[in-house]
Amino acid sequence: MSAEAVAPLPKYYVLKTDLVELIANLAPGTLIPTERALADRYGTSRTTVRQAISELVAEGRLGRIQGHGTFVAPPKLTHVRQLTSFSEDVRAQGLRPAAKTLALSTVPADNEVAEKLTVPPGTPVHRLERIRLVEDEPLAHEVAHLRGRLPGFKAKLEKAGSLYTALKEGYGIRLLDVEDTVETALAGPEEVRLLGVEMGSPLLVVHRLVRDAEGIPVEWTSSVFRGDRFRFVARIKADG
Amino acid sequence: MSAEAVAPLPKYYVLKTDLVELIANLAPGTLIPTERALADRYGTSRTTVRQAISELVAEGRLGRIQGHGTFVAPPKLTHVRQLTSFSEDVRAQGLRPAAKTLALSTVPADNEVAEKLTVPPGTPVHRLERIRLVEDEPLAHEVAHLRGRLPGFKAKLEKAGSLYTALKEGYGIRLLDVEDTVETALAGPEEVRLLGVEMGSPLLVVHRLVRDAEGIPVEWTSSVFRGDRFRFVARIKADG
DNA sequence: CAACCCGATTGGTCTATGCCAATCTAGGAC
DNA sequence: GTCCTAGATTGGCATAGACCAATCGGGTTG
Questions:
Q1: Is the C-beta atom of B201 closer than 7 angstroms to strand D?
Q2: For residue A5, what pLDDT is reported?
């Protein structure tokens, strides 16, 4: 129709679009043809097939396992971030949450933690490192830093099961507000190891600052979520 | 030290790590060596160099322009999402915001819009499509759908300059709360065209549902932000 | 029967190379 | 001087093939 020269779409993008159609009606977990088979069928190189598949993996639509194959990924979860706990959010969706504590100790605050918690660098703070699981699948890596002296914190945390419950019922700390920042990143070796994602897959990096009823920062947490399995929701109320 | 066999890091990842160090002390905009030069220097193929650079581009640390070169990317912006407007947020950072209206019309609600705005499919709704700019650079593509009859909307919007101001001062609509969802995606041809990003670069897709004082949904907006230029912040107040 | 091993299959990394497309620069035409 | 063109340079796309690593299935071995 138009006389204008239209830039032809790259082959890998055409293939990607075709794959999206193909998997639209397939159940999660279904294997798609192998890379070599697709390369044959489309008369293209495996490199080109891999570029198309890689983007779909990055978008969370496909997954792949070396030696096994490439399959349709399960749909994204929705994570409602209110002043509730991760566990509650997940349970509200009918799923089974869990947390594995990797480390719990008292450490001197580094410069970043000190700034966020408004304490002098070197001040002892509690450090809690955990893996968040849903249906036994590791979905997030979280490192929390807590300000102040919290005697018997370990026992209280285990008893309460939830960080926020422990703070509230163990120490009477009431929370005023939460500030979350959300940004994208790509997985490196640490995330590959901890979350079982593949190199270069997208992540959501969340930094959370929690203030108590007096407006004093009490918690500074850095979390890395699998970007292909999560969607964040924030509900924000009007001021008046 | 350990007798355990350590999986050797892929070459492209080593190169990526080296590049992160290299650019740490370089000013934004500085050109890094060309792909061919890096391939020579590291005794590797250009394909491997491109894999390393591609991930850094996806993370927003590098940018590249065909025929020109690969350069250090500017730092991310921070976008505070409260019940304020995009414009106010950007101005608060000392930057110059702008919006370019691509389309403003009344259209029948499709299934998704109808569901979100709780109206029957086909109901006339206002559709506003805009490009958000900061310092003349397009950073987001936004399609808003507004429920209800809004006589003279176009004129009021132009007069107010801001969507929220227009709703409030033009029609007395007070807003109760906002619900944002944030997820990741990769750029396709439309984003390449509208935002000037490259194919496959990461995006933040935000869906926003705004309710009025009675809790009735009044706005359903779909936004696509450049993932390499934005960081979201949500402040959430405790309920009581 | 269970445990083991081996080979086929599949994705992961990498090479070497070619050509296309966008950009920039140096020279020449006017 | 301005404009234009022709190369050189740079990133973008794609090929064909090699070898590695993880997985899985079937057959052998105890």
A1: no
A2: 41
